[in-house]
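In the design runs reported in the main text, the only information available to the sequence generator was the tokenized backbone. The following block is the verbatim input for one such run; it is reproduced so that readers can re-run the procedure and compare outputs position by position.
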């Protein structure tokens, strides 16, 4: 059994985890037959842990917002259960003087405990207590570089097995790890009545989680008790996103996976790395090993155990297909994407699925797959590349809107970081409106109908997006704040371990971001920080690319093992301030791989390393009130969105003025193209639609539908292909290309064939 990192004790009774306030001595084995008293009656044990450098008397206890998961931990919150008529009053000395009520409550609690214990035990027939067998593909894990089977079910002999904090998780390769989650994660209270829940949960925080191979798409899990389970709608007004990115897994970046790029010094992006790997005959074996080992099931369990509740998963378009001349590994990563979604479901984590790359590159950055020029909605091939992007957005929307996945993937980021300064706002607005209409024609309109559509701000001020697409249905604005947009001056972040830790940087984060994000929620609607980090500077091996250079003195910031307590306290203070300022965020990124030196050389960007090293909070709710403690006041967002912004009344009724301005697609002009959009190269819609494969169920779950990857059976429009006879310019380098005369929109329309329905 692995050592327990948390400060709380756990006793296993059957398949139920019950925490106690009494601490064991290190090394003292848990006695499974002894009797313990309940928790203290004053709920003081529920207070979240404070950073090691923070004086409890100065610790902020309230968030800028009055949201469910802010401040001290409330055992039963409205985000997880319908408890509007329940008494949340702390049980104090006065109530202890009522012995009849105490005995009555104790009897009911005892009955509830018996029920909670015996029912799961009755379900567990073929596995030892607290052993959780994962699915072999949809939620399991392959060792080494082996491929997941794509299965969402378990073995035929598996039955429901419950578990929670301290559970031993059995992976698909037969190895085990221990799931540590002191926050009541991996839980399902489906069979406890409302009255019993209120009594039991206020005395015994019983955590019951399970994987059911007979029901592999079960959505009862939750990562912690303040986050609603997956089978409950997310409320953007009252629930807070505490998330991390799974960066560098499916879209390679040199600073996240430096060892891969150090093997090929001439590789600068995934395009060039793939080319070099293919030349050596190692493309598939190398990348499959990376997909299979860089992020494992244990990582996802650790994310849930860290008090986080969302993950953002960047995926490339080559998960769907590639066209001639593109060196990326085609389709292979998709089965690993599905496996990751299965793990997220298992641990109750919601997913923001982000299309991180599109054909031609939307920003010219390394993280778009190929660094260099921008050929999406820009230049001669701008319209054609956007056609392909729309096709892939359609395919992904069809998959994640199926009932098997819609609760797991509530957000879809349609294009990561399009560079608006090159593309143009009218062009990007028209594209976003086209995507919105296409998505809602697939999903339908209103809350619960497919995912929220997330659009990136194009690196423009959030205020410039006010009143974007009024009347649209569930659109989120995604911004990626970093310290280039704010300045902490030349002051050091190392400033002791007390209340002044971090120097000027925490205040800079709060003053630079809090009011801007609050205002955007009022003027745009739901606004999130899809990428943020502890990086107050621009230091990190390959952070600016293999050949890039930092503007900072980065020597001390590459080796975290040399950091002092004051250094860690400063980074912690800045991180807490950033979290509080942004409110809904995804840290970039969960894991940074070791370099050839055997260490992480971009430590400010690794959440996992920060947890281990002590500069990332063990409980993200510790950030609540940080900005207020620094004197940042004002009028924080009150959590009230207009109904249409969250799928209520009016959703999908886009204003006439907006439709008049941006309702024509393609837009009339494309930046950096010396011809009208109608004269630019386009593709014809006579191709076969590519669908994404669902997991294959094993024998034990053959009666369960896994879907077919296509939600809307009435969506039978063909896919896009090249026009026969057209000599297209290089789709990835066509800014100054000559406009061909046989590839325009008119030619494409004349050559279209009969509609071919997608494969079902």
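Verbatim output:
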């Amino acid at each position: 059994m692995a050592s327990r990192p948390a400060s709380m004790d756990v006793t296993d009774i059957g398949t139920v985890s019950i925490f106690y306030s009494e601490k064991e001595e290190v090394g003292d084995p848990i006695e499974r037959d002894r009797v313990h008293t309940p928790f203290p009656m004053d709920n003081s044990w529920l207070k979240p842990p404070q950073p090691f450098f923070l004086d409890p008397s100065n610790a902020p206890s309230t968030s800028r917002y009055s949201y469910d998961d802010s401040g001290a931990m409330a055992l039963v919150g409205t985000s997880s259960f319908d408890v509007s008529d329940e008494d949340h009053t702390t049980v104090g000395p006065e109530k202890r003087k009522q012995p009849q009520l105490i005995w009555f409550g104790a009897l009911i609690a005892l009955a509830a405990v018996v029920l909670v214990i015996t029912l799961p035990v009755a379900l567990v027939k073929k596995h030892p207590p607290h052993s959780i067998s994962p699915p072999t593909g949809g939620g399991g894990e392959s060792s080494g570089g082996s491929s997941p089977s794509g299965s969402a079910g378990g073995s035929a002999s598996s039955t429901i097995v419950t578990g929670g904090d301290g559970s031993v998780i059995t992976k698909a390769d037969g190895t085990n790890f221990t799931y540590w989650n002191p926050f009541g994660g991996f839980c399902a209270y489906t069979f406890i009545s409302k009255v019993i829940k209120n009594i039991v949960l206020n005395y015994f925080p019983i955590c019951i989680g399970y994987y059911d191979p007979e029901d592999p798409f079960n959505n009862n899990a939750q990562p912690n008790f303040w986050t609603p389970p997956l089978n409950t709608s997310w409320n953007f007004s009252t629930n807070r996103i505490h998330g991390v990115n799974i960066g560098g897994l499916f879209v390679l970046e040199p600073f996240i996976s430096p060892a891969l790029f150090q093997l090929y010094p001439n590789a600068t992006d995934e395009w060039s790395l793939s080319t070099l790997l293919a030349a050596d005959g190692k493309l598939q074996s190398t990348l499959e090993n990376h997909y299979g080992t860089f992020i494992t099931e244990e990582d996802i369990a650790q994310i849930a155990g860290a008090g986080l509740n969302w993950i953002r998963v960047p995926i490339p378009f080559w998960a769907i297909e590639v066209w001639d001349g593109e060196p990326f590994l085609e389709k292979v990563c998709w089965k690993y994407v599905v496996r990751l979604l299965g793990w997220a479901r298992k641990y109750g984590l919601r997913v923001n699925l982000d299309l991180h790359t599109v054909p031609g590159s939307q920003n010219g950055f390394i993280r778009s797959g190929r660094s260099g020029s921008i050929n999406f909605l820009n230049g001669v091939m701008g319209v054609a590349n956007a056609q392909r992007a729309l096709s892939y957005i359609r395919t992904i929307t069809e998959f994640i809107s199926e009932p098997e996945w819609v609760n797991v993937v509530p957000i879809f980021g349609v294009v990561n970081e399009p560079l608006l300064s090159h593309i143009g706002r009218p062009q990007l607005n028209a594209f976003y409106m086209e995507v919105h209409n296409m998505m809602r024609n697939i999903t339908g309109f209103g809350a619960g109908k497919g995912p929220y559509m997330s659009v990136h701000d194009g690196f423009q001020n959030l205020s410039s997006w006010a009143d974007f697409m009024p009347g649209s249905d569930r659109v989120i604005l995604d911004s990626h704040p970093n310290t280039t947009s704010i300045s902490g001056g030349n002051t050091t972040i190392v400033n002791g371990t007390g209340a002044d830790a971090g120097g000027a940087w925490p205040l800079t984060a709060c003053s630079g971001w809090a009011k801007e994000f609050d205002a955007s929620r009022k003027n745009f609607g739901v606004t999130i920080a899809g990428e943020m980090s502890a990086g107050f500077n621009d230091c990190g091996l390959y952070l600016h690319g293999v050949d890039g250079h930092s503007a900072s003195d980065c020597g001390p910031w590459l080796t975290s093992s040399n950091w002092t307590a004051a250094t860690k306290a400063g980074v912690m203070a800045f991180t807490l301030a950033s979290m509080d300022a942004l409110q809904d965020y995804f840290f970039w990124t969960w894991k940074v791989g070791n370099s050839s030196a055997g260490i992480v050389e971009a430590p400010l960007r690794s959440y996992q390393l920060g947890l281990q090293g002590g500069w990332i909070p063990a409980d993200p709710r510790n950030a609540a009130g940080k900005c207020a403690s620094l004197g940042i006041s004002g009028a924080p967002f009150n959590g009230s969105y207009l109904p249409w912004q969250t799928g209520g009344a009016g959703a999908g009724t886009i204003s006439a003025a907006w439709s008049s301005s941006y309702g024509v697609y393609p837009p009339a002009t494309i930046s950096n193209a010396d011809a009208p959009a109608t004269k630019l190269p386009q593709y014809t819609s006579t191709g076969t639609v590519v669908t994404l494969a669902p997991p294959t169920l094993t024998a034990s779950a053959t009666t369960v539908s896994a879907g077919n990857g296509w939600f809307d059976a009435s969506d039978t429009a063909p896919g896009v292909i090249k026009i026969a006879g057209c000599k297209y310019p290089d789709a990835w380098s066509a800014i100054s290309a000559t406009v061909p005369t046989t590839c325009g929109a008119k030619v494409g329309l004349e050559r279209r064939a009969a509609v071919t329905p997608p494969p079902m």
